[in-house]
Amino acid sequence: MAGVVAGLLGLGIGATVLAAPSIAAIACPQCYGLTGLGAGVYAEHDDDRYRRMVAAADQRIGAFYGERTADARVLICATKDCYAGLGGGGEKGRAFGRWALMLSPDGANETIATHELAHLELHRRLGSAYGEVPDWFDEGLAVLISDDARYLKPASEADRCRLPYPEAATIVDTDWAVATAGGSDRGYLLAGCVVSRWVSERGGPPAVLTLITELRAGKTFSAVG
């Protein structure tokens, strides 16, 4: 996990996108009362349920990509006080670049863990090309990989969208901050629909690997997406 800490520190302590308590907690989970559960997982309580949860999330990501490559540190809180102490807010979970994630009490489940780890995996695979991927695609892909039933119909359905596709497609031209303003999760519903259709029409998960390769080669998302 040395790479995780080095990567976070490389982002700069003064980076406005990362709260100082979160950086410090990721660098030293024990300093914030978290217990190491092995494999980079730290939790407020030593509960084997957390180990199984992260292992299941890893399996989902491995099933989609063929393997999981991200070297992630996972911080899990069982209480709201713990999560607030780590710099968390009202979200269920938060991913930090390609290095680490935090899960709130409401987010300590397989679906949310997979969603956040999916962000880290994509960011790790893209490297410096990460900035080419629009937020709606990043979030929609995480919804798809986590198989989030709130936003997608079962995988057995030919069309997994929970709303008409033309309505969902508006997310492509909508700022993500606007789509999720006020804590709305509508953006995830739209993005999950569009990305699930995108992946399905291009032959499944290998299409995402091809996209990553092309973006790393210098192409733009608009050119290959």
Please characterize this protein's 3D structure:
It comes from Actinoplanes sandaracinus. Keywords: Signal. This is Peptidase MA-like domain-containing protein. Residues 1-19 form the signal peptide. The chain is an alpha/beta fold and 225 residues long. It folds into two domains: 2-126; 133-224, no CATH class. It is built from eleven helices and five strands. It has helices at residues 2-10, 20-27, 48-65, 80-85, 110-126, 135-146, 165-168, 176-179, 186-201, 206-216, 221-224, and strands at residues 35-38, 41-43, 73-76, 93-96, 100-103. The protein has a five-stranded mixed beta sheet, with helices on both faces. Strand 4 (93-96) and strand 5 form a beta hairpin. Helix 6 crosses helix 9. The longest helix has 18 residues, at 48-65. The radius of gyration is 17 Å and the shape is globular. Mean pLDDT is 91; it is low at 11-18.
Stretches where pLDDT is under 50 for at least 5 consecutive residues are: 11-18
Structural class computed from helices and strand pairing: alpha/beta
Strand content: 5-15%
Largest beta sheet, briefly? Answer: 5 strands, mixed
Helix content: 40-55%
Give the beta-strand count: 5
**Average pLDDT score:** 91
The overall number of domains is: 2
Order of helices and strands: HHEEHEHEEHHHHHHH
Oligomer: single chain
Number of helices: 11
**Which value, in Å, is the CA radius of gyration?**
17 Å
Overall form: globular
Q: Walk across the major sheet and give the strand order.
A: 1-2-3-5-4
* First and last CA, distance: 33 Å
